[in-house]
Amino acid sequence: MAKLNVKKVVLAYSGGLDTSVILKWLEDEYDCEVVTFTADIGQGEELEPARAKAQQMGVKEIYIDDLTEEFVADFVYPMFRANTIYEGEYLLGTSIARPLIAKRLVEIARETGADAISHGATGKGNDQVRFELGAYALEPGIKVIAPWREWDLTSRETLLAYAEQHGIPIEYKSAKRSPYSMDANLLHISYEGGILEDPWATAEEDMWRWTVSPEAAPDRATVIELTYERGDIVAVDGQRLSPAAVLRRLNELGGANGVGRLDIVENRYVGMKSRGCYETPGGTIMLRAHRAIESLTLDREVAHLKDELMPRYASLVYNGYWWSPERRMLQAMIDQSQEHVNGKVRVRLYKGNVIVEGRESATDSLFNASLATFEDDAGAYDQADAEGFIKLNALRLRVGSHRQS
User: Fold this and answer.
1) pLDDT of residue 9
2) Rounded CA separation 147/144 (Å)
3) Helix axes 127-138 and 300-319, enclosed angle (nearest 10)
């Protein structure tokens, strides 16, 4: 494949081994200037060392952006309004961060006059698709350089040798290096590789970082109250918080009670199955509580239609189509459905479980106690009417019964 003709590239840069090697490789292979971009989306790591390393490597334009509030408000919250889960389990913690990073890469390219972007995603994973679909949707003429699809540096050993050969500063920590490939943001932390490549192997307890094991969680439950406005949590236990602060608080509470661990084999968009483990304590609480407030405030058919469309919405997010017209269309419908999703939900966190204890909405509840009661409803519902209802709905079943063998 012929090399692109580029003069300046914006690199999604973590400061780690892979992207540090990519930085130097881009300069050498493409004879171009490199701009580095490091996103703070709540991964819990100090990011200033990335700036120092980029400066040490001669980078003139360095971007380190705090995107945590934008991440939760404009990406996580809209996704949870749809009750989104992929393949019945995965809360899409990695997937939902990629369109934001792609957006900022494109913005920085415009700001700096760069004609290309680059990333460190491998040629086997989903992230290459997510980054590039997002970039092309937002800037159709952008050029993309994906080194893992071009170079022959296929192992950690070859990357280390390249770094040593070219004088790339690499920190060697005395602590034991994690055997897992990990990705973290404010919504989750993921683990792949190592013994997890055997789907029968049990994940080691010391792998988990955000949550205590359910067995080691407190013997006394934690009860919290969440306040919703238009489908979004705006307060925890009566204290109004920003979207990012809400998620941080729920992560703390959920993690302390063993909530949010997941071990799955998922179908990657590129065609293979992959085993991954995830910790999503706050997101697990959000999903359970949101369904509870919707059960009180959403019309039946609206709720059922949302459930039918959710798997399609989840696949769009997982596969990298956040910026597609069909995702935007679905989002408009979902957001409209949340107009009356207002109220409070009380949940109990106990040894890995999120148990809904109560839900209320002073203005938008569709629950009518006089209709639902098993006691005397004072004429609110004529039970005799059910006979006609049943017969009308049984008509096609009775007509078709003669064809049954």
Assistant:
1) 98
2) 10
3) 100
Which CATH number applies to 8-165: 3.40.50.620, 3.30.700.30, 1.20.1440.60, 3.40.120.10? 3.40.50.620
Residues 53-93: tens digit of each pLDDT: 999 999 999 999 999 999 999 999 999 999 999 999 999 99
Query: What is the assigned CATH class of domain 181-298+340-360?
Result: alpha beta
Q: Say how far apart CA 360 and CA 344 lie, in whole Å.
A: 5
Residue type, 128: Q
Q: Are 210 and 189 in contact (CB under 8 A)?
A: yes
Enumerate the domain spans of the chain.
8-165, 181-298+340-360
Topology alike, domains 8-165 and 181-298+340-360: no
How far is the C-alpha of 118 from the C-alpha of 13, rounded, in Å?
A: 9
Question: What's residue 405's pLDDT?
Answer: 59
Q: What is the pTM of this model?
A: 0.93
- Write down the H helix ranges in 113-140: 127-138
Give me the residues of the chain with pLDDT under 50, please: 173-175
CA 66, CA 354: separation in Å to the nearest integer? Answer: 30
Cβ(59)–Cβ(23) below 8 Å: yes
Say what the pLDDT of residue 3 is: 79
Cβ–Cβ under 8 Å, residues 298 and 338: no
Beta strands in 141-241 (DSSP E): 143-145, 181-184, 189-192, 222-229, 232-236, 239-240
d(CA 283, CA 265): 19
To which H or E segment does residue 369 belong? helix 369-372
pLDDT at residue 403, as a whole number: 82
Burial class (CB in 10 A: 0-12, 13-18, 19+), 165: exposed
- The predicted pLDDT at position 378 comes to 64
Q: Which residues are catalytic?
A: 18, 98, 127, 181
Closest CA to 12 of 135, 126, 168, 123: 135
According to the model, what pLDDT value does residue 173 have? 45
- Written as six digits, the tokens of 180 are 């897992």
For 281, the token pair is: 């304590």
Beta bridge partners of 229: 232
Determine the Cα–Cα distance for residues 102 and 106; give it in Å rounded to an integer.
Answer: 6
